[in-house]
Design brief:
Length: 104
Amino acid sequence: MDLNAEELYRRKKRKERKANKEYIKVYKSCNRKIKRYDTILKETSCLFDIPQFILGVPSYDKISCITYLMYKLKKNNFKVKCTNADKLVIGWDKLNFDPTAVDR
């Protein structure tokens, strides 16, 4: 069997599409948490834990997922800070946002 560059490219793209679908699932989970904190708890910030793994996904690039989440949230006017490798502090109060004050 000969090595085919086009097949390698297609495999790479399939993996990227699958990863993006998983990042979207994590983003939706993040959105649900934000909505819960806003509507039920009447908070204007929350702490979101990035999953250590995603079921059914053998290789999970957490840094890429964090980058995706931060991009999407900032695009939607949220204030976001990555506290360490697995937590995001997210705020939506235009006047007051102290990422060090969030403990949830």
